[in-house]
């Protein structure tokens, strides 16, 4: 039996995002953002990939973000439930279009600032530390239409103004900040990650890496500003994590796995080290990329993050001959199927040991504190005849991952905390479904938008409460490390 106990100051909690939870998409002066034009159904993926040029809201489409789970109206009830579980930290994001509805106004929307002040004060009431993401797949649509979104350097200064407004408005209430959520996803889902829309004949790699450069400069710039406004601020970057395993020990497969890892770690290499990695030169040459940069960009990039945050849902597999026919459509980051692990109902690989591998890789590479800010199981939950939701499968998934998290800490990795993804049921970013549930708290709503929005704790709610209360000790009797 392993004796599991986490550091005394470990931050246990959960995570949501504004665009998947708040709803109230036009309330109190909020503007339309990129997620508000991404529908549920057959057009969702092409829209996320930047393949649909008409980004207007259509009357015959259903847009899940418009109501979501109405956290905007229910935040007090929801935070009280999280406090009942004993949360130490609650990861949320700010909707840029709630603060600057068009993104380029001279002055912010005070109603938007008031909403987030109220949310953070509610957290403070329960002793919960907010962990706040400035840009979580959320760009004002006006900036897409007028500037072309992040392909345009104009967004650097607009983001600087937005971030500075937030740092000043919420000083003393928020000290943990993330700049861009899963910044590497802009390579895989360009409209979601950076508001990019492509036209026929575009050099898409050129546009994506130009947008990446602009985001990286913006991230470093606001990291500098955050430290100036409040020296207590801790700023992190955020990676969609998960190592690529080589499909075999064939050297070409091993090299492909290195290349695929670099593709994702490229962003974090810059945000942590403060300069472009040496392998970028060959990458840009082979993809015919010529970045538009300014001399001051490279000085700005030297303002590096304090910690590395990441999501982990699954490991990935790579081979030298991987292509669209051999990779899974289940996740936006393409991977060939790993025969040694099982899959979720949505085809995502379940690999707890992969979390330990990822944590060791990141810590060995960067020597910065880590923060696991997303991990969880999307599954269909059923309410039994007594009104209970017995989600033992979610408990088993989280238990195995937390055990491996603890093993990584024993390996010497510094981990600040853990926020499970979708601690309350919300709209799935990948599919737009409500039926793909992650939460400890069930929300009565279906994939077509029907339901009362009533909140009901699941079995996992009480299990996680015990984990937090015991600082992990409650897992000691069930700490098997099987990789299922």
From TrEMBL:
Annotated catalytic residues: 374
Cited InterPro entries: GH, GH_1_N_CS, Glyco_hydro_1, Glyco_hydro_1_AS
Spans through the membrane: none
Cited PROSITE patterns: GLYCOSYL_HYDROL_F1_1 (PS00572), GLYCOSYL_HYDROL_F1_2 (PS00653)
Pfam families in the cross-refs: Glyco_hydro_1
GO CC terms of this entry: cytosol
Keyword field: Glycosidase, Hydrolase
One example GO MF annotation: beta-glucosidase activity
One GO BP: carbohydrate catabolic process
Family, per entry: Belongs to the glycosyl hydrolase 1 family.
PANTHER family: 6-PHOSPHO-BETA-GLUCOSIDASE ASCB-RELATED, GLYCOSYL HYDROLASE
UniProt name for this protein: 6-phospho-beta-glucosidase
Species, as recorded: Thorsellia anophelis DSM 18579
């Amino acid at each position: 039996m392993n004796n599991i106990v986490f550091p005394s100051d470990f931050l246990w909690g959960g995570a949501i995002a504004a665009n998947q939870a708040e709803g109230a998409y036009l309330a109190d002066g909020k503007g339309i953002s990129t997620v508000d034009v991404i529908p549920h159904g057959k057009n969702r993926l092409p829209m996320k990939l930047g393949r649909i040029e008409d980004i207007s809201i259509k009357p015959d489409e259903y847009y899940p973000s418009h109501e979501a789970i109405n956290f905007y109206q229910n935040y007090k009830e929801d935070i009280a439930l999280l406090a009942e579980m004993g949360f130490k930290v609650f990861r949320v994001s700010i909707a840029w279009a709630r603060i600057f509805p068009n993104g380029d106004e001279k002055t912010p929307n005070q109603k938007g600032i008031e909403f987030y002040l109220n949310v953070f004060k509610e957290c403070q009431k329960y002793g919960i530390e907010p962990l706040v993401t400035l840009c979580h797949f959320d760009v004002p649509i006006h900036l897409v239409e007028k500037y072309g979104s992040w392909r345009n350097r104009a967004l650097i200064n607009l983001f600087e103004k937005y971030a500075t407004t937030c740092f000043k408005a919420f000083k003393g209430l928020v000290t943990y900040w993330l700049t861009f959520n899963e910044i590497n996803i802009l390579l895989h889902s360009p409209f979601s990650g950076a508001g990019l829309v492509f036209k026929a004949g575009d050099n898409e790699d050129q546009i994506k890496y130009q947008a990446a450069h602009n985001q990286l400069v913006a991230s470093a710039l606001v990291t500098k500003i955050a430290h100036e406004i409040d020296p207590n601020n801790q700023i992190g970057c955020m990676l969609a994590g998960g190592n690529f395993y080589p499909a075999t020990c064939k050297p070409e497969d091993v090299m492909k796995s290195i290349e695929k890892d670099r593709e994702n770690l490229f962003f974090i290499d810059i945000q942590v080290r403060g300069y472009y990695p040496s392998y970028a030169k060959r990458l840009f040459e082979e993809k015919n990329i010529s970045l538009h940069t300014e001399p001051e960009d490279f000085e700005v990039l030297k303002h590096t993050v304090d910690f590395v945050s990441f999501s982990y849902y699954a490991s990935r597999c790579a081979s030298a001959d991987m292509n669209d026919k051999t990779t899974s459509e289940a996740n936006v980051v393409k991977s060939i199927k790993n025969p040694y692990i099982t899959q979720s109902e949505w085809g995502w690989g379940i690999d707890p040991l992969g979390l330990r591998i990822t944590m060791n890789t990141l810590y060995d590479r960067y020597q910065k504190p880590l923060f696991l800010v997303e991990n969880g199981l999307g599954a269909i939950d059923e309410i039994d005849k007594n009104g209970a939701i017995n989600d033992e499968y979610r408990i088993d998934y989280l238990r195995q991952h937390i055990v491996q998290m603890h093993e990584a800490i024993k390996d010497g990795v510094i981990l600040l905390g853990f926020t499970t993804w979708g601690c309350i049921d919300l709209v799935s970013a990948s599919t737009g479904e409500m039926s793909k549930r992650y939460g400890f708290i069930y929300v009565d709503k279906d994939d077509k938008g029907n339901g009362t929005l009533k909140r009901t704790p699941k079995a996992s709610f009480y299990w996680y409460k015990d984990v937090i209360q015991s600082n992990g000790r409650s897992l000691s009797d069930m700490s098997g490390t099987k990789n299922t």
